[in-house]
Amino acid sequence: MFTAQPEHHINTQVNPHKPLPPLYGLDMMRAYHNTPLGELSPHVYAIAEQAFSSMRACQGDAAAADGGGNGGGATKQAILISGESGAGKTETAKAVMQYLTNRCGLGRTGSVCMSDIAAGHVAPIEQQVLESNPLLEAFGNAKTMRNNNSSRFGKWVEMFFDTRGKVLGGGGMVWVMLWVMG
Questions:
Q1: What is the pTM for the complete model shown?
Q2: The domain that contains 109 carries what CATH number?
Q3: Do the beta carbons of residue 176 and residue 140 sit within 8 Å?
């Protein structure tokens, strides 16, 4: 279940605690490709598309301003995913990362990138970025009443793109979350 406030770029979703394949995957990614926020139903792909499109638009503005000499420069976007234990933060982060790593070929039927994605073959750097998430999940997880895999750590994940929107790489950072009892 999704709800949104497009004017504030806020998307709220509820974890159904079961897989819902029609809500995720290439068909849904294609639906949100190049679609302005708020035009379709609220979805995490809509937020990812907005961030990606804003990054690309600002890169284009920077390239035009400097005559295109530096390839558009760096333009940063952020997506904050928060919630209680078991709320679906990890699955949402995976969905965002999958959308962004696949974004290069969405809507370009017949292109090498699109056929590779459809066949389940992803360029090595995109695959490495996607495979980093389980590694980050492995730090400090423990079983709780609500979740068999609850994290005691916060995560910061970065993805880097070239001026064409292709993934160049990524990075991550993990830190312990401390609670002060008083």
A1: 0.74
A2: 3.40.850.10
A3: yes
